[in-house]
Amino acid sequence: MNPDFIIYGSGNYNSLGVLHCMASKGIKVFLLLIGSGRNFFKGEVIRFSKFSHNLHVVHDEEEGLRWLLSHRRNFPKGTIIYPTSDTAESLLDLHYDELIDHFIFPNAGEAGKVTQLMEKDKQTLYAAQAGIRTLWSRYTTSSDFEPDQVTYPCMVKPIKSITGSKGDMRVCHTPEELNKAIQSAKNTKDFIVQQYICNESDLLFLGIRFADGTISIPAVIKKPGVSSTGEYTYAIVSTAVAECLPEQENVKNYVNALQFVGPFSIEFGLEKDKNYFFEINLRNDGTSHYPLAAGINIPYIWYLSSKGILTNDDLAHPDTEYEMIDEILDIRRVLSHEQTLLQWYRRLLSARAYRYYVSFDPLPTLMLLPMFLSHVFQKLIRSVIGTVKKTS
Fold it and tell me: What DSSP state is assigned to residue 261?
């Protein structure tokens, strides 16, 4: 008989983090992987984990869904499907009626509802109704938009995370920049244009809404202001949720209004001591394994609650705060002169959470070293070429 916990997604750090969370509790997992799971340059190295014994690889999420439907009897009734991407979660949601009698997965009680709630216009509307501070927003398509009606600077991003990508997100300072960003987007033509704030940090709150309607928000990931490298490669992991989220009751009311059951993350931008709602992710967040060092194991908590065996002791954790670092890519902040090599090395040693590494399963991180070396080499080559061009 197969394990009763399925990770459904690509083999990146999100899925690897969930696998490590469950392995730390001795729970066997079945991996339904999208793609090969061995693409170094996308960080897909989950198959090098010593815990990835049970797996099946499919070309895309649609094929994965068909596989689940045709192989459901190979898994015990009540098996948990744990999606690690918006596309995977949306497909489970859209096929809710076909799956819910045999599987447990994040849902909102009816087919298609979670997919609708992934639309950022609906997210912002519900947040405002719950009394949460939101940003001025306008929803548009590339064919009907008038950039002159916007206050600048602004942020443009896809309305739906499952059809757009982070590559379609832009900060625009003029109507010309905004028009170009919308017209050149490759993945979607439906956008939200939003007030842009110079956020001092991004606050990502990790939570779970249980089947009985109770909500736990045990940790916050505090990301610094935007790095010149374009990504966050270090952050602070904290259990001081009440201190960082004075709107906690409003957030709980908001999630309850969505009627969503499962793990979630809700993101705010912090500017001048005020939190501004950005978005909510109705699935496992890629940072969910960072609070493990604080004794917070979100996938395992969801597993216990789904089995009806969760206790208050499972939710208990100490008050703590520590650093997280991307052990592979944070070196880019040295190359971009944001920190010295010594500062980077000290942070690497002092961190208690990493994007890929855990002491009981080091091989995936080691297998990523070729990607790291290739990145550094390419950066040096570009730097040398740039210097030669300037001097010639």
Answer: B
